Amino acid sequence: CGFLGERICRLLLEEEQGLAEIRLLDRNSKPELVQSLQASTSQTKVSMFEGDIRDSELLGRACRGVTLVIHTASIIDIVGAVDYSELYGVNVKGTQLLLEACIQENVASFFYTSSIEVAGPNPQGDPVINGDEDTPYPARLKFPYSRTKQEAEQLSLRAHGEPLHNGGRLATCILRPMYIYGDG
């Protein structure tokens, strides 16, 4: 659970009454974070699943009984310091496996945190007015990070409306935050 994930958890605990449980998934267990989050609420259970987003069994367990997944995990690299296979594995394959787990476990809603980097520079400098997912926007993505986030977005868009085993359909939403900063 990184900077953004932790902040989302804290906001949910502050704002959402009747929230039964928040589940965190991270490669490195952070017992102090779970304790801190749990101490801020008497109603909501806070659980940690330790492991890699590329572990489909772990994802299945983490998604079992869940109604909403907020996916903030990624490797951010705009300077080429991370091997492309690692970047692709976490950002694209991890997203694909998480979407598959959501479908398998009847998760109703999936929020994917992308990046403004996906919009890339528009070589013509044309403005986008009232654009949506189908609005053409020629962009030249310069960094592997941007390309992996764009590919993960496409996976999320394609998964929207996928049938769930319980008769429902998966709803997906993609957010493209600008640069994120703050204490912590």
TrEMBL record:
Keywords: Oxidoreductase
Highest taxon listed in the record's lineage: Eukaryota
Gene3D superfamilies associated with the record: NAD(P)-binding Rossmann-like Domain (3.40.50.720)
Listed name of the protein: 3b-hydroxysteroid dehydrogenase
Gene for this chain: 3b-HSD
Family membership noted in the UniProt record: Belongs to the 3-beta-HSD family.
Domain annotation 3-beta hydroxysteroid dehydrogenase/isomerase: ranges: 1-184
InterPro entries linked: 3Beta_OHSteriod_DH/Estase (IPR002225), Lipid_A_modif_metabolic_enz (IPR050177), NAD(P)-bd_dom_sf (IPR036291)
Organism: Anguilla dieffenbachii (New Zealand longfin eel)
TM region(s), chain numbering: none
Listed GO MF terms: oxidoreductase activity, acting on the CH-OH group of donors, NAD or NADP as acceptor
GO biological process: steroid biosynthetic process
